Amino acid sequence: MSRLRFAPLDMTRFHGEWSEAKRPRGDIRFELSCLEKSIAPQKKDLAKFFDHGIRVSFIFCVINTYRKITKMERIYTHYLKRQAILLLFLSSFVGSFAQEPLLTLEAEAGTLTAPAKVKQVNGYSGNAYVGDNDAGSAILFENVIIPQTGTYEFKTYYSSMQLRSIAVKANNFVEVISTIVNTTPDWNAPPTGVMSVYIYLNAGQNTIKITPYPVGQGGPNMDKFEILTTDVVIPEPGEFPLIFEAENAQLFGSLKVKPTDGSTLSGLSGGRYVGDFNQSANSYMKFVDIEIPETGTYELRVFSMGSGRRLSIKVNQYEKIIITTNDSPNWNDAPTATVSTLIYMDKGKNKITLGTHNDDGPNLDKLEIHTTDQTIPKPTVEKLAFISDFSDNAEITAQHNNETLSYLTDNDEYTFYKAEGVNSTQITAKCQYPILLTGYLFSTGIASDADLSQWELESSINGQSWTKIIPNSYSDLSGAFLFSVNRTSAEAAAKAAQYYRLTAKGENKVEVAEWQLFGVPYIANSDNKTFPVDITEDIDIQMKATAYPEGEAGDGWNETFYNLFNRDLTRKYFVVGSKSYYVEIELDKQYKLHAYTLTSVDNFPERDPKKWTLNGFNPETGWVELDRQTEFDFPCRFATMRFDINANAGFTKFLLDVEDNHGSSDSQLLKWQLFGEEYNDSGIDKLENGKYSVWSGNGKINIASQDVFPIDYQVFNLSGMLLSKDKITNSTQEVYLPQGMYIVKINQEINSKVIVY
Predict the structure, then answer these.
(1) What does the alpha-carbon distance between residue 699 and residue 620 come to, in Å, rounded to a whole number?
(2) CA separation for the pair 131, 126 (Å, rounded)
(3) Residue 688 pairs with which residues in a beta bridge?
(4) Residue 510: pLDDT band by 50, 70, 90 thresholds?
């Protein structure tokens, strides 16, 4: 059997072996592959190609004996000589034809950043390689001379027994990610493996920096790097449209570059794509250092495969945009579908993060950024710090205390605690009660590139003996790092601690924008009630609480809504087949609510509530909305999150109405607690001047006159809208209004008090 074809770039894979030949642009290669018992092509089949005066590289790939090569040579020699065509004979013992590299960079010749170090071992190129490429290490080449501006192939020769990745950053261009496909037999001995990516280089001097990827993890051991010319063309960085291959993004969760065997697919940009966009694995991808010439509106085009799925798109720290991709014919091959949206970008470096939204995502091929004449307003900046954590009410002390210490725990990464003239400092948090820590957040500010992997967190039961906390995973939030610690309810008694100590580091200055602690309370108790007491403690839950759906139960187990109130870490509320539910509880008397908490379960984050309202019932005014959350993310598993409420009215019922979760068809919640004080119906902010009195309570504003002459009053909301007006003489007027803040104006003088009830 024989195969005759034109191959514009590469040779054919032959019995599992690749033989890749590079050639000058514009040539045509004629390729002949003959299998072991194949019949040679007829002379007439070849002659027609020779007669056109085309320059041809004629290649024989044989897997049997040298005798076959000589036989074929006799058949075709007169054709080859007549046309002056190069004849190359390749066999299993002769070797393969390969392009010579334009430049070879020995890893040990680069400038190293610790902990990377040179190791001398015979058999490597130069008899040395660079090892210990742990988090924070780098290899830098500062004088890479290239003859011509354009695209080049960058090959890395590595040793690694694990599938790892590196980031290759040329000059100030966006870094590209090179990932190992096949491991090597040993970490510290030849043979080496080879992986490659395409990079853009300028004519003349270039810098190339190689770092482990992702940040905080280690890379392979590296022997050398080769730069080769290529027919592949990638866009010049900074030239619109900007094109970003999905396979070059920073990948998190379960995302991976496909095909996973390193092969390419015709019709896809770059020949590869990114798949496994699973919501349950918190999959997301990030493009960093996107250079934009001017602040303003740009068009973002997303090229995807598979059925239409929703994606969240976050540019820098602006609020997320939700898009829905279009359907394509299949999941794992071209053609792709395209959808576009408008985004707001800043001048200089930008970051784009793509994540799931309520479901698994599509497969992604590439992104394109285009200029546009359309404009959108500058979006709202979203904070990375979570709405609450256990450091909020902790007693904070610092080795280097100063007036900026309060900024450390204000849930705002735009404010800083600063310790000048030191390389490290220790900060201790004494929580209100012991916490089973399941997550924590560090931030040194949005623009910082500090290496937070060098910071340490410790826990202590008594504030004297300390244990280092080792996270199981982390997420880079582009301005903060969120760490997760996997713990179970069975570990709570042994690992819950009241004291936590942070050792933060810097260079002649330590800056901490935010430090947050997440977990669940664990107050040791013989009856398993380890959560703090709240205002539902003495309520007969069986009689006073209702829910729909009620939850699941079976022979010997119970996961109904009653578990939300039992303060037991091991019991949860679980709903099958519904993303929404409500729970209502009636109290024995009126309470002013200061805060409520919700606690996530130790598994299945896609079942967490995401969108809900909290409502309170006042006997005189009816139901009042006290809080609304629409896109809430729990920071980790077993996380108790507190939501403060500014409600000075008294309420006898509370209703938690969950409208949506994070994508599952089932829902679950560990605990719902309510914190407040008994309402005494005395009103607040009573103002008296001898002629009139103004106070609030029970859903109304009271205006009383003690004068025999009439007085005029007006009531406004904070927007200046007139809500009520009248005249009163030696009497009391009641103005019923929804809960809120109001301004009362009497006899043309604005009352200095804002009434809140």
Answers:
(1) 7
(2) 14
(3) 693
(4) very high
| Pairing relationship of beta strands 395-398 and 337-345 according to DSSP bridges | unpaired
Q: The tokens of 44 are what?
A: 């007439």
Alpha helices in 457-533 (DSSP H): 492-495
d(CA 711, CA 704): 10
Q: Which of 495, 502, 536 lies closest to 519 in space, CA to CA?
A: 495
Q: What pLDDT score does 569 carry? A: 97
Rounded CA gap, 190 and 81, in Å? 42
Q: Distance (Å, rounded) from C-alpha 81 to C-alpha 58? A: 12
Tokens at residue 182, please? 């096949």
Residue with tokens 């997303």: 302
Q: What is the average pLDDT across 568-590?
A: 97
Distance CA 679, CA 311 (A): 45
Helix (H) or strand (E) holding 161: none
Cα 30 to chain centroid distance, Å, stands at: 48
What DSSP designation does 408 have?
Answer: G
The set of residues, in sequence order, having a beta carbon less than 8 Å from that of 16 and lying 6+ positions away, is none
Q: What is the residue-averaged pLDDT of the chain? A: 84
* Burial class of 52 by CB neighbour count within 10 A (0 to 12, 13 to 18, 19+): exposed
What is the DSSP secondary-structure string of 350-368? EEEEEEESSS---EEEEEE
Range name among 364-368, 649-653, 694-698 with the lowest pLDDT average: 694-698
User: Distance (Å, rounded) from C-alpha 594 to C-alpha 740?
Assistant: 15
Pairing relationship of beta strands 56-62 and 86-91 according to DSSP bridges: parallel
